[in-house]
Target: AB hydrolase-1 domain-containing protein
Amino acid sequence: ERKSVSYQYPSLVSSHIVFISVFFLSPYRSQGWLKRGLLALFVILVVVPFSVKMLPELIQHFVYTHRISLPFFVDLSRPADFSLNHTINMYLTSEEGISLGVWHTVPESRWKEAQGKDLAWYQNTLSDGSPVFIYLHGNTGTRAAPHRVGVAKILSALGYHVLVPDYRGFGDSTGEPTEAGLTTDFLCVYNWVKERSRNSLVVIWGHSLGTGVATNTADKLLEQGVVFDGVILEGAFNTVRQNIPPFNPFAWRYWKFPGLGYLYRAPWEDNKFVFPTEENLKKMRSPILFLHSEDDLLVPIEVAQQTYEVAARAQNTERVKLVTFEGSLGYLHNGLYRDPRLPEIVKRFVQSL
Model:
């Protein structure tokens, strides 16, 4: 047995020597290491500086995802293609160089009268005494998305006017979205409506990203002594209580690589997207209705409950309500419009204003 071992040992050593020589000294392996070295230099000298330069814009895209226009290949100037045959398309100028695409749907009871009418007729209807809703949508797609059309149909069936704008950079609206820009866009639509609606109620319905736009604008108007007649917040996110990946997608790296934060600055340093909803709610004085599905994967129900409690403490539980929908119904983040109870819930809220 010892002879056998002593005989195999040199053979084993020689085989390792051959392997090491082939692996490390062959020209092919040397070329491989050279390629890896060049790739590392490319990453260090090109990719990292490019990331530092482009990260704020990339995060801006992920927050708003305004370039994802669903459904595809639609003509937003033709709302009748989406069964909104008592709706007109129009464009408002938010500020110089910014044009906003907006749909105005009149109450369903006026659909026959609305056929063939022009923009002037639609504008005049805003003073007919019916409540007016401005719907602020979320961060993907356009005003033609099915769940947004669904909300417009519900409100119209209840006898309300509905205006659904696309923010700058969304749909057929021009410009690039920023937090301040979205507030400016909403103010444009709100002021346009108030100038034409006389004493009619004007209610704001914000969904997802739109809840941040709604509360930001409410805070800005408070400085002028203006309070919204009523606010509905559906799927409201809360940047204080949520770790929302789009706001800093590289945050997890900071724990592993000290100092990397010097390369990847926190995106909110540019004040492009903060949406301090919780702080805004502490100052708001409008009646508020929170709507939330228990199976919402983007904004957990626990966050919705905490956000509601902040708003309720700032006012009281009579002026601030939370209505939740069972997770077994499968509504997730966008599907509340399918609930048969929703029209009555909204109607009671409007009647309370």
